[in-house]
């Protein structure tokens, strides 16, 4: 049986030569292409064909089989930390890292709620399973120096929400950086930092060192340093930058507002501190 060779005429896509290339986000928001290609240099991207926007993995493997690309068929699936399966995450990590016991501390009153085996076992936004507590608590911050994990009650606690972050130097895919951002030093676009999350409207502010401040139009839950913010304009993926710093949480801002209000009103509202007759 002869293998049928797929030709460009048979493919349900069009190809053309170009000096530079951009990328589009996946159809129906189900593709990780933008998140993965946000760091690919233009030198490599312009020599690469990505006709996969409308194709499923099974169909791509079928094309590979028909063209005898057995190395593609035999390639193992992704084996990143996200794909450890149903194993207990904590036990898995502690096979490679030594435990570093620390405390769970309430963000609201600094009360110690329990202990853990290592701050590195937790990511911002996840539920912290604290022994002896019925109510769910969620990780809002970590102190690697002290080993403390700061937690808050409720999955929608304002300590989990922030609207400001700073990235490292951004890798721009087709235009470095976009002309509109160079001209105005600011640019409206969208970003995401997790696969399949909804795009978030934001404003980028360009810094002289190539980093950017990202101001989200609406506070976002569970931003975390180390993740990559990927930027989009319409369907085009512009590029990405590693999240290095976070702005204050909504809870911190609320506390600041309350403190400022008390400081202004304190002398007249506090017993015994009114103005002298």
UniProtKB/TrEMBL annotation:
**Enzyme class at the top of the EC tree:** transferase
tRNA-specific 2-thiouridylase MnmA-like C-terminal domain sequence ranges = 163-243
Q: Enumerate composition-biased segments (Polar residues).
A: 1-10
Compositional bias per record (Basic residues), positions renumbered to this chain: 14-28
Q: Which UniProt keywords apply?
A: ATP-binding, Disulfide bond, Nucleotide-binding, RNA-binding, Transferase, tRNA processing, tRNA-binding
GO cellular component annotations of the record: mitochondrion
Renumbered to this chain, region (Disordered) spans: 1-37, 255-277
Q: Does the keyword Membrane belong to this entry?
A: no
Q: Do you know which Gene3D superfamilies this protein is assigned to?
A: Adenine nucleotide alpha hydrolases-like domains, HUPs, Translation factors
Enzyme Commission no: 2.8.1.14
tRNA-specific 2-thiouridylase MnmA-like central domain span: 90-152
Q: Please list the GO biological process terms of this entry.
A: tRNA wobble position uridine thiolation
Q: Which reactions is this enzyme annotated as catalysing?
A: 5-taurinomethyluridine(34) in tRNA + S-sulfanyl-L-cysteinyl-[protein] + AH2 + ATP = 5-taurinomethyl-2-thiouridine(34) in tRNA + L-cysteinyl-[protein] + A + AMP + diphosphate + H(+)
GO terms (molecular function) for this protein are:
ATP binding; tRNA binding; tRNA-5-taurinomethyluridine 2-sulfurtransferase
Q: Does Disulfide bond count among this protein's keywords?
A: yes
Protein's job: Catalyzes the 2-thiolation of uridine at the wobble position (U34) of mitochondrial tRNA(Lys), tRNA(Glu) and tRNA(Gln). Required for the formation of 5-taurinomethyl-2-thiouridine (tm5s2U) of mitochondrial tRNA(Lys), tRNA(Glu), and tRNA(Gln) at the wobble position. ATP is required to activate the C2 atom of the wobble base.
| Family indicated by similarity | Belongs to the MnmA/TRMU family.
Q: What is this protein called?
A: tRNA-5-taurinomethyluridine 2-sulfurtransferase
Source species: Bos indicus
Q: From which lineage does this chain's organism come?
A: Eukaryota, Metazoa, Chordata, Craniata, Vertebrata
């Amino acid at each position: 049986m002869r293998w049928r060779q797929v030709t460009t005429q048979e493919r349900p896509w069009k190809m053309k030569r170009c000096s530079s290339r951009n990328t589009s986000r996946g159809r129906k928001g189900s593709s990780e292409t933008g998140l993965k290609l946000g760091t690919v240099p233009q030198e490599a991207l312009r020599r690469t064909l990505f006709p996969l926007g409308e194709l499923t993995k099974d169909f791509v493997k079928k094309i590979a089989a028909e063209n005898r690309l057995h190395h593609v068929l035999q390639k193992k699936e992704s084996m990143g930390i996200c794909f450890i399966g149903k194993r207990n995450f904590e036990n898995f990590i502690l096979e490679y890292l030594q435990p570093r016991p620390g405390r769970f501390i309430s963000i609201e009153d600094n009360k110690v709620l329990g202990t853990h085996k290592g701050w590195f076992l937790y990511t911002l936004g996840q539920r912290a399973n604290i022994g002896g507590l019925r109510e769910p608590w969620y990780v809002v911050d970590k102190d690697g120096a002290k080993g403390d994990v700061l937690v808050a009650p409720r999955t929608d606690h304002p300590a989990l929400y922030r609207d400001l972050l700073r990235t490292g130097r951004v890798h721009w895919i087709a235009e470095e950086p976009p002309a509109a951002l160079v001209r105005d030093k600011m640019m409206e676009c969208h970003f995401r930092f997790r696969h399949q999350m909804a795009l978030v409207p934001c404003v980028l502010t360009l810094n002289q060192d190539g980093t950017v401040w990202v101001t989200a139009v609406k506070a976002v839950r569970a931003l975390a340093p180390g993740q990559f913010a990927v930027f989009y304009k319409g369907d085009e993926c512009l590029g990405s930058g590693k999240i290095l710093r976070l702005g204050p949480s909504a809870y911190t801002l609320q506390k600041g507002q309350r403190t400022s209000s008390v400081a202004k009103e304190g002398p007249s509202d506090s017993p015994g501190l009114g103005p002298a007759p």
